[in-house]
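Quick question, first post here. What does this chain look like in 3D?
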Amino acid sequence: MPSESKKAGPKTLGPKSTLRYRILRYTPDLVRDEWVNIGVLLEETRGSRHALRLIEEPREIARVRRLHPDADEDLLRALPIEFDARLRGPDREVSTYLEKLEQNLSNALQFSPQKGLLAENFDDELDRLYRDHVASPSRRAGGILQSTRDWMREKLNDVFRRHRVLGKLEQRVRIEGFTQPGDPLRLDYGYQNGVRGFIHSISLRRDIPQAKVLAYTAECIHARDSRAQITAITEVEPAADNPRHQFVEKLFAEQNIRIVAMNRVEGFAEELHLQLN
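> Answer (accepted):
Ran it through. Tokens below.
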């Protein structure tokens, strides 16, 4: 989940937008000089948008612990909150902070050399950089697969773009205003056109804990906005003979969360297109 300096809605960049990025590395043992990538800082070269996406999910932190058993887990969990607070300030303060950031990092945290690139869309590029440099892909015999949620988000971005709704969606929406200050969770997409809506991808095979988090979040959202529309995108339809699927389906029904499987997202995207135009 990235930290950004802007609270504004979605922003799609032109085809020749110039960006620059650095990879944040965690080096628990300076003597051995062995590091693991834990985040991506992406900035507009001619603009004011900055985003830092860091590892945050339990499986991501567990991977660091497997590579470095003595890793400071408290530090890793605190980083998203620290950076999030810093990157939400006024543009001038954020620019000053980013200029001094490398000097202020601890010895265990280091940035890679800065690199430039051209990209059509800021959010898509942040996803790609995180996937290529930081995320831990799922593995299977004969090859490597990206995580289910990353795969779903990539497909959703493509579907929403083709149905001309991606530019009308805010991505990685903070929800701490509905839950508690400091809540690091971000929902994949948000929109508002008469009613407020949220969309979040959940893997029925792997994300049962995240399904419970989404249910809690939906309860908090509906307590403040009873008309809010919340949609969970799943990789498959819930199976009637699968107890875990049925648990999630009942949990979501109790919190008025609509389930849309990936095989129905084309129709869902067209619904959004009609609703948001």
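The domain at 145-276 is CATH 3.40.1350 (Trna Endonuclease; Chain: A, domain 1).
Residues 208-224 form the longest helix (17 residues).
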